[in-house]
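Figure S4 source data
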Amino acid sequence: MEHALSTATLSELRRPRTYPAVSVLTPTHRREPENSQDPVRLRNVVAEAKKQLEADPAVPRERRVDVSRQLDQALAEIDLAHVEDGLVIFAAPGEHQVWSLAREVPERVVLSDTFLTRNLVSAQASERPFWVLSVSADHITLWNGGVDRVSEHRGGGFPLTRSRENFDAERQERIGDLPSTFRDEGTRHFLREADSALGRLLHEDPRPLYVTGETAALSALDDVGGATRNAVHVPHGGLAHGTPDAVWQTVRPLVAEEARKSTEAVARELESARGRRAFAAGVDEIWQSAREGRLRLLAVEENYRVTVRDGGGDHLMPADSGDLDAREDIVDEIVEQCLETGADVRFVPDGTLGGADGIAGILRY
């Protein structure tokens, strides 16, 4: 199952496909007893996707068989013991993907010539993703961080490993020769290589960056690097060969502190916008402003959900989840639209926005 959504991956997912490109969404649960319903619900929504394929006259038999097979293969790959809050299955002729999201999604089947990506985009934004670079003299690991975990990122040149005759970085740490290790030109070249690879990655997928390592390693990386100079330094060695949990426990307090500072900054900006008449709130006003590209900043409470329908006259009306014309993921629509128009999207703890009904923004004009 996929977790990390890069700019390149999103672009590939949005590429037009030969019809039908099938998107299957279903909510899932991490804990008992709620997760007991997940297997039946998942099978039923996949069966519904096959039913729609069967009933669609625009789908030739050969493609229908292919896409149905892709759905079966995706279903077989899903491990419900390790799901989060939502699952998304993409299937098209010759391909399929399964995405696990740390954000609830509505149950839905969509047949189109592109995959439905708005829920992935919103989930990625809500996770406040970050990078962790763990440095030693012989091994450099990059970790992909999210709301409650990190996992090793493999790709873009990472991990980097250096081997050399008579070179034992761990022994040099034990005998106190680490500073000279990081003054060695071979080591510095190794660090420059890592910095260059990281710079390319940050250009494609910019995120906050934490760098872990011995003090001498952090200092040497600062001397030779450019991409890591604005990173948060964490003087903790051994994590280049560490476990995801060890890395998460090390950076967790720093991530929580940065999230707290970010929330306070958003609250201050919103309060200032009120005085300048640049403040918008409520799903209807925010939706209109997002469509017009007028939002500079969007703030959404983490668990804010609302179901609406088109009320005519460019307004949204409250709706029930079962209504035929209900739009259950309007918040995710707004998030994707804002990101498309260059707005800064921030998810904040529930209650942060006070009387703003869970969603607020700052207007560009």
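Figure S5 source data
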Amino acid sequence: MGHRRELEREKVSTVAQLNPELGLRRGEALGFDAKRLLFEGSNGDYMPVGSQLGILLALSFRDDSGHHTTGSAALVGPGIAICATHVLEDQGFLKKLTNGGATLVAQAPLPGGMLLWTVTHVATVPDSDLAVLSMTLSSDFPLDRRFAVASITTRMPAVGEELTLTGLSAVRQTEEISRAMNIELLPGCIKGRVLEVYPEGRDRLLPSACLAVGCEARGGMSGGPVFDSRGFLVGAVTSAYPGANVSFVSHVWPALVRAQACPVWPVDPYPRPPAGTILQLGFKFGISIERPDAFEFCIHNNEPSLRYHAWQ
């Protein structure tokens, strides 16, 4: 997916709902489709804003001073997303969220529409720049009642492999909160080849498995999904060196086993599992992971955990 830049802006809209489930028939089936996303075209090509089918999320904090769009995330399961921790910590928003001084919402563009999610629980992943979000839907359901989620892989990309970094950047980071809001988002889709692999982390700022990629992610793409050459979600955008044509990607694996998701959606009467890691929730909860067997039991920070074995 990808097209030359168009002059006419795309417009998608939705309406926030307190109880979107009221629009469902009791027991109406919901579907969750794991997608591998492959991107055609070249760097600089225009990516239609809804081309990731609701998988790509723009994260926004709402407080007394406005609606602040700070970064991106990826939907990986029913109401479960992965993002970068530093996006949440920007300007102290995570602390305000914890203290009840802010709410965190996610905008998910679709072809011709948009989904809205409200974050109810944030779990930061120890020793990494990753976080797991648990969310509830706060807009109408798609007409076909189906949701797309990213297909995750535990594979470690090889040096020289092409990755695609994606994200949603806000033209204006802060908007005044009103009944009808107009938020202008720029979809980013940048390709680059893996320059270096750091299976054990690179430094204090990148302490977990990460990759250096030969491209420059722009502001707002932080936390956005990164896809490998086969279309699997392999990580999240972490940082970039301006002018150096190098970006860093946190590999997704610590987010699968070192933080607890707290499923709160779909609401009753739909069944939900208890809190658990993304790996534990797995296929039974609509989460697709290639090679979930790439882990073995270990002790991490004096706690039982799982050790990752890189494979290619």
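Helices lie at 85-89, 93-98, 253-257, 278-281. The longest strand covers residues 185-198.
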